[in-house]
Amino acid sequence: MPDNMKTKLNLFSSLFFLLLVLFSCRTEKKPASRPVTDIPGPKQEWAIVIHGGAGGMTRENLAPELEKEYRESLLTAIKTGKKILAEGGSALDAVEQTIKTMEDNPLFNAGKGAVFTHEGRNELDAAIMDGSNLAAGAVAGVTDIKNPITAARRVMTNSPHVMLSGSGASQFAKEQGLEIVPPSYFYTEKRFNELQELLKKEKNGTVGCCALDKSGNLAAGTSTGGMANKRYNRIGDSPIIGAGTYANNKTCAVSGTGHGEYFIRYTVAHDISALMEYKGLSVKEASELVVNDKLVKAGGSGGVICLDKNGNISMPFNSAGMFRGFATADGKEGIFVFKDEGVK
Ligand code: ASP
What we know:
Shape: globular
CATH topology: Glutamine Phosphoribosylpyrophosphate, subunit 1, domain 1
Distance between the termini: 64 Å
Bound molecules: aspartic acid
């Protein structure tokens, strides 16, 4: 072959290769350009979603009377937040007051019904986040604050810090005039007996709430007694911003429940928000990817409730069940426990 032919052929194949590379780059980037607004469902004036913990509950192992009690308690919680939002109240108020009803209810592993530590104590964690300005507050390992979610909110609004722990958090709560209870307030026979069983195996449960208000602000909150049988002042994901709790008006509000060690290491709540912000995923796509792909591969059990700025809700979990419920301004509402029910 003559030399000039060879050069032409080389030039031609280089050009072809370059075009191939350029084309494959373009197709690879395609999902990133998916807009966040590309989500089915009409925009909601307000919306609320709650969870009462993920776990091993199935239709076979959850007693019908207990199931009824859980559903009624979830409904009471949803009603509280719904009323606040429908009357034009803030997402933060809805989150705090809704979680408070669950903290005061011994059924849930938060506040009154908190699980026991290995040593037979109750150490509570909670966090709240304001999606409008990324302000956040949290308390961890508290033993005598009746409503840790309120203490978390005060940390956010009345202190220069984001997270307070142990006795310092109690002192702050006292100074704020919050209700302090003797540690024995958190003693419930059911949880204590459970501990005796659980000294053999670990178990979890928690409460959380995400809300969107009429001003378009998102907020998220989570409150928990942590994992039963925990030791050495262990702190879980719930009070850690970006792990178990996160809210950002640009993306979504998230509250998680499950094996906290995984939620911390995989920064679950922020990961969902980041997938929406940087990759353009919808709230459903982002939360499904993190909970039912990343976490499953890692071996982390649990779930999340998420709410985006348009009121789209997603509640994926990879455990057998998750106590959960939602309500939106257009009149839709639901309370679910098992895997085979709920909003798909
Ligand atoms: N995530 C909580 C923790 O690890 C427990 C739970 O949600 O069940 O402390």
